[in-house]
Automatic annotation (TrEMBL):
Lineage: Eukaryota, Viridiplantae, Streptophyta, Embryophyta, Tracheophyta
SMART domains the record matches: DEXDc, HELICc
Domain Helicase C-terminal: 408-575
Annotated region (Disordered), positions in chain: 52-155, 581-621
Pfam families linked: DEAD (PF00270), Helicase_C (PF00271)
Domain DEAD-box RNA helicase Q span(s) in chain numbering: 181-209
Entry EC number(s): 3.6.4.13
The protein's name in its UniProt record: RNA helicase
Compositionally biased intervals (Low complexity): 71-85, 607-621
Keywords, in A-Z order: ATP-binding, Helicase, Hydrolase, Nucleotide-binding, RNA-binding
Basic and acidic residues bias spans: 128-138, 594-603
UniProt domain Helicase ATP-binding: residue ranges: 212-397
Length: 649
DNA sequence: AAAAAAT
């Protein structure tokens, strides 16, 4: 039968302390600014703010595009860093668990060690891409000599582990492998260990501590972890390591131009795919494992050429991948690892058919043969149900407190009428500027609802002396990438974005996320604010709320409450009003503990209503719904039920 | 109702 384990540094009290604030984490704007290290400006060239809409007073810091210099070191976009940890870790290898899972044997069976080398494969894996062709692997760390100093942005490589110390973790499923405390405990292989050192990761983040052993044991995984907590490495390390350790076998020779990746990583936006690709390239440097990215909006020919040079790990957005599959440029029949990042988004209405096509209707090995890993910060139970089609005897892992937003993000909500939003935003920006909290070291990300709205606001901000740019789906891919570069580098310290930028993007120095227009879905809110407060750093999120946002009032109030945020009385009144009048979102209920394994509360719910069910209870009752204490859930009935909200109703 | 994702 299934059993549940709760890992926590403070296991027996985590339930009762979820309301405590980690006080050392809390910081003011000024502190935020001060703690942001100088960022070297890189990308020059135009953002759409400059030339056309030039104007205005007070833009002292703003340098028009044609005057911007372009520093010599233009190479590494990869230097954009994310992820955790500094320092080094020993390389000791402890007992190897390799080949432990049935799936690890998959690649050994049959062909074992086939030396047919149809495509330069014999023996050394890596598709022969850097052998025999004279190709040289570009150093993704962007440092020519030694890695030590070139990566000098210490500040943003350091994850604040204190912030994660007492984080509650829930796992469920059969035979859950225990977590590890150091990278050294895991046998990832020397090449990968060296890259971990180059990335200055000292020790694994909580999600990594748990997810990596699970994956290495060959198990399928559904993982729910806070934004900014190191998920990418959590699924990349086992994949890379597994590919290195696996016997290489010849790819089928069919269609000389068809390539056969061993791992597939899917993500919902092009920019996120790019980011994952860059990370994965760093992790696989000099391992012989080759990572290729494919996404729409960019010339397919370049991507095809890249693929033909060999691919072990393919990172892609769904549309472009389907295209490649239909052209028979890519076959999935050798896939051993499948990872879906932002998995709940990948399986929601817009994406599900495409994902099903890729995963179920092409030539990918079925669950149980391949290994599947799903990651997201939010995991609605309905989506969990869909996702279970892709998994085999999987382990559910939830890391982090309430709703995957963190105490690291100070959330504010302000009542702002629609007509006042612009001037209110301007007030905020002026205040930031006055505090010195704005500019290259301190970025502001503004979310709006529509693409047109994004353009309009960007233009207006520029007119008013605040250099801004915008990213949304109506812009060309070039423009999107340019906007992101310009924002990242601080040349344009304000980015107006639609939800295309809501998920996954790791942009250091985002100090402030403004929800100019609130989303209708609380999960989208969680992802949006997760663009700040990353890698253990603090951040600020401000939301403009008005009568158009009543549908999110309840879940927003719940979320803020559970994240130890002050909830304004007026918001509680909106929440109370909409609570029973159907203010429920398409798929979510409200209260939350990130998520819990839907397999575990199926017995509790009758209509499959709310995936978080116990969520709002968790912090309120001390009965502890987790350790399987009976009644933890039943009482109060989650949402729209009775008695749940008594603490602050 | 909107956004994203192939051409």
């Amino acid at each position: 039968m299934e059993f549940v384990v709760i890992w926590s540094g403070l296991a027996n009290i985590f339930f009762f302390c979820t309301r405590e604030r980690v006080s050392t984490m809390r910081t003011s704007w000024a502190d935020l600014a001060a703690s942001s290290a100088a960022e070297n400006v890189a990308a020059g060239s135009a953002n759409n703010c400059g030339a056309g809409t030039t104007t205005a007073p007070g833009r002292s810091a703003y340098v028009p595009p044609h005057l911007r210099n372009r520093p010599a070191s233009s190479d590494p976009p990869a230097a954009a860093n994310s992820g955790p940890a500094v320092g080094s870790d020993r390389s000791g290898h402890v007992g190897s668990r390799w080949g432990g899972g049935p799936r690890n044997d998959y690649n050994r069976s049959g062909y074992s060690g086939g030396s047919r080398g149809g495509s330069g494969w014999g023996g050394s894996r890596g598709g022969g891409w850097d052998r025999g062709r004279g190709d040289r692997e570009v150093n993704p760390f962007g440092d020519e000599e030694d890695t030590e100093e070139a990566f000098g942005e210490q500040e943003n490589t350091g994850i604040n582990f204190d912030a994660y110390e007492d984080i509650p973790v829930e796992t469920s499923g059969e035979n859950v492998p225990p977590p590890v405390n150091t990278f050294a405990e895991i046998d990832l292989g020397e090449a990968l260990n060296q890259n971990i050192r180059r990335c200055k990761y000292v020790k694994p983040t909580p999600v990594q501590r748990h997810a990596i052993p699970i994956s290495l044991a060959g198990r399928d995984l559904m993982a729910c972890a806070q934004t900014g907590s190191g998920k990418t490495a959590a699924f990349c390390f086992p994949i890379i390591s597994g590919i290195m350790k696996g016997q290489s076998m010849p790819r089928p020779a069919r269609g000389a131009r068809t390539v056969y990746p061993l791992a597939l990583i899917l993500s919902p936006t092009r920019e996120l795919s790019m980011q994952i690709h860059e990370e994965a390239r760093k992790f696989s440097y000099q391992t012989g494992v080759r990572v290729v990215v494919a996404y729409g909006g960019a010339p397919i020919n370049l991507q095809l050429r890249d693929l033909e040079r060999g691919v072990d790990i393919l990172v892609a957005t769904p549309g472009r991948l389907v295209d490649l599959l239909e052209r028979a440029k890519v076959s999935l029949q050798m896939i051993r690892y499948l990872a879906l990042d932002e998995a709940d988004r990948m399986l929601d209405m817009g994406f599900e058919p495409q994902i099903r096509k890729i995963v179920e209707q092409m030539d990918m090995p079925p669950p149980g043969v391949r290994q599947t890993m799903l990651f997201s910060a939010t995991f609605p139970r309905e989506i969990q149900r869909l996702a279970s089609d892709f998994l085999s005897s999987y382990i559910f892992l939830a890391v982090g407190r309430v709703g995957s937003s963190t105490d690291l993000i100070a959330q504010r909500v302000e009542f702002v009428h629609e007509s006042d939003k612009r001037s209110h935003l301007l007030d905020l920006l002026h205040a930031q500027r006055a505090n010195g909290v704005q500019g290259k070291q301190s970025l502001t990300l503004v979310f709006v609802e529509t693409k047109k709205g994004a353009d309009a606001l960007e233009h207006w901000l520029c007119l008013n002396g605040f250099p801004a740019t915008t990213i949304h789906g109506d812009r060309t891919q070039q423009e999107r990438e340019q906007a992101l570069r310009s924002f990242r580098s601080g040349n344009t310290p304000i980015l107006v974005a639609t939800d295309v930028a809501a998920r996954g993007l790791d942009i250091p120095h985002v100090a402030h996320v403004v929800n100019f227009d609130l989303p209708n879905d609380i999960d989208d809110y969680v992802h949006r604010i997760g663009r700040t407060g990353r890698a253990g750093k603090t951040g600020l999120a401000t939301a403009f709320f008005n009568e158009n946002n009543t549908s999110i009032a309840r879940s927003l109030a719940d979320l803020m409450h559970e994240s130890n945020q002050e909830v304004p009385d007026w918001l509680l009144r909106f929440a109370a009003r909409s609570a029973y009048s159907g203010g429920r979102n398409r798929r979510s209920g409200g209260g939350r503990f990130g998520s819990r394994d839907y397999r575990r509360d199926s017995s509790f719910n009758r209509g499959g209503s709310d995936y978080y069910s116990g969520g709002s209870n968790n912090n309120n009752n001390s009965g502890g719904g987790y350790g399987g204490v009976s009644g933890g859930y039943g009482g109060g009935g989650g949402y729209g039920g009775s008695g749940v909200t008594s603490a602050w109703d």
